[in-house]
Specification:
By secondary structure, the protein is of the alpha/beta class. The chain has ten helices and nine strands. The chain is globular.
Amino acid sequence: MRRFVVLPRWAQETLALWVLHTYAFELRDVTAYLGIESPEKRCGKTTLLTVLTELVNRPVIAANISPPALFRVIEQTRPTLLIDEADTFLSAKDELRGILNSGYTRKTAYVLRVFRGPASRRLGPSPIVRFSCWCPKVLAAIGRLPETLADRCIMLRMQRKTPGEQCERLRNLDANHLRRRCARFVLDHRADIASVHPTLPAGLNDRAADIWDRCWPWRNWREGRGPSTPAKPLSLSPPRPPKTAPRQRSSWIFPSSLPPPIPTDCSAAR
């Protein structure tokens, strides 16, 4: 990750865990959202989204999306949905925010619509159709995401890189081998992933615990421990600062002593 974009502290490790989750989310009942906030333009959020599209499972990226397009693309493709420029349209669309709010748990992630095709007019009352809106999602914005959505996200807050921070150009990125190895790892460990209930740090509770419960097992596998092994202590960031406060690179919930990034060969983490 750091080859191509400047990241907050612990973000590289967190993103590695989340990318692997996108290959296994259908084995669980909650999926983790990723929220990317920038205080101003040219902080790297779109570059980070581009890198993620090369790594995650079944990426679908959009700079704008309507509620019908949202649940239809999810129902048809079960993607990892990456939404950029959320600040330009999300705040004015209550319906879309409501669908996104519900879409992180399998049991609540449904919308109902009346089907109005030619056949429905001949057959009588229009049938009710149910669409799923459940899948991993990335929401990127300049400024702040709505509070209810941020509460469902692992938050990364970007900053513009300094003159001394250098990154490679994206034309050098080829992640095909990483995608294949992530898919192979999940396929080999389906039963363990579906049944594991990791012991989370005491600092996590409620929705934060639900979110990290889906990413934490990868950390234990990387360390060579069982997926349910009790986790190491967790450091919590300060409360979300007011909108006028300066941004910090590490202002989200993060583990205090994460292991090295997931290896290139995911099979080594068995």
